[in-house]
């Protein structure tokens, strides 16, 4: 039994071996390069070292069309085939039809039901999602709500006890009027996440700007988004307990190919642990449906 941290990165697939299309090959990503030895591409999708490895994960689940966030996130967080449950790929928000399934079967819920402690590291406004269009809610906060873990707010950001979804507090200042919040570097945010994860058996953090950059920014914005994540991971890795298993996973491809929108590319499943990956059965991971049960096994919440 161990401790695990799931970092959900929205819209991050494994892209072509072409720097003109794939921002991973243009961006400065020293942390990922150091962990993995080299960056994954469709030609070479599974780099690995003693401490980290990439596993390409299928997000299509055999269903035509481009994978979407609503059904993809639900699948990732529950281990259930939400695409077939709903009947098609759907997004960007969690379908209302699938919300009871997500609430009952997400990995935070399962962990709590088996006596494990959990944390949702993201800060959200108090009372969220009350007061917004209630259909427009992503799966990670809905999963946190199911176990009363949507409990970090602006005060937690002030004290470094939460992480903004954009990592650096800019969204809170610009869109929520919290201009008093301290400026924070990605590295500092990563260290804050490490501290949060040290106090729970399972921690979830969700970052959405990668998908937004893939939709709206072209190559320059995609590069900036990936470089922010890499700096965030730098701070995290430096402060993380070496026994913690870090899982980075996504719901669909997008940012890895700036020539289009969502892709049918395999998504990035990255696994890292400072103490070494050892004999972790990564070969069992084939699709995004496999991530939640894999993590739950590692923390002793379910049996393999």
Task: Explain the overall architecture.
Helix 9 (186-197) packs across helix 11 and helix 10 (209-216) runs antiparallel to helix 11. With 304 residues, this protein is of the alpha/beta class. It has twelve helices and six strands. Strands 2-6-5-1-4-3 form a six-stranded mixed sheet, with helices on both faces. 34% of the residues lie in helices and 11% in strands. It starts with a strand and ends in a 6-residue tail after the last helix. It has a single domain (4-298), classed as 3-Layer(aba) Sandwich (Alkaline Phosphatase, subunit A), CATH 3.40.720.10.
Itemize the secondary structure elements and their pairings.
Elements lengths: L3 E6 L20 H7 L15 E6 L11 H10 L3 H5 L12 H7 L1 H7 L4 E3 L18 H7 L8 H5 L11 H6 L10 H12 L4 E6 L1 H8 L1 H22 L5 E5 L17 E6 L18 H8 L6
Parallel strand pairs: 1-4, 1-5, 3-4
Antiparallel strand pairs: 2-6, 5-6
Helix pairs in contact: 9-11, 10-11
């Amino acid at each position: 039994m161990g401790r695990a941290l799931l970092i959900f990165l929205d819209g991050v697939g494994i892209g072509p071996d072409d720097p003109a299309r794939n921002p991973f090959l243009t961006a400065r990503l020293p942390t990922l390069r150091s962990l993995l030895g080299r960056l994954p591409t469709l030609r070479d999708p599974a780099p690995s070292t003693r401490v980290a490895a990439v596993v390409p994960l299928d997000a299509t689940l055999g269903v035509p069309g481009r994978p979407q966030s609503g059904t993809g996130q639900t699948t990732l967080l529950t281990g259930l085939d939400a695409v077939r449950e709903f009947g098609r790929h759907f997004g960007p928000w969690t379908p209302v039809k699938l919300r009871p399934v997500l609430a009952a079967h997400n990995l935070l819920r399962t962990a709590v039901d088996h006596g494990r402690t959990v944390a949702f590291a993201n800060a959200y406004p108090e009372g969220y999602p009350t007061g917004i269009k209630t259909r427009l809610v992503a799966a990670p906060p809905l999963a946190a709500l199911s176990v009363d873990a949507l409990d970090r707010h602006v005060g937690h950001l002030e004290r470094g006890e939460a992480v903004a979804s954009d990592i650096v507090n800019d969204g809170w200042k610009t869109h929520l009027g919290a201009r008093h919040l301290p400026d924070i570097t990605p590295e500092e945010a990563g260290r804050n996440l490490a501290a949060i994860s040290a106090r729970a058996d399972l921690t979830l953090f969700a970052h959405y700007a990668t998908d937004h950059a893939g939709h709206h920014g072209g190559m320059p914005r995609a590069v900036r988004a990936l470089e922010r994540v890499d700096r965030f991971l730098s701070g995290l890795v430096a402060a993380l307990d070496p026994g913690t298993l870090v899982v980075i996973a996504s719901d669909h491809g997008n940012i890895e190919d700036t020539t289009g929108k969502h892709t049918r590319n395999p998504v990035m499943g990255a696994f890292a642990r400072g103490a070494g990956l050892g004999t972790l059965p990564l070969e069992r991971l084939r699709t995004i449906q496999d991530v939640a049960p894999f993590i739950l096994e590692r923390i002793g919440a379910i049996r393999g």
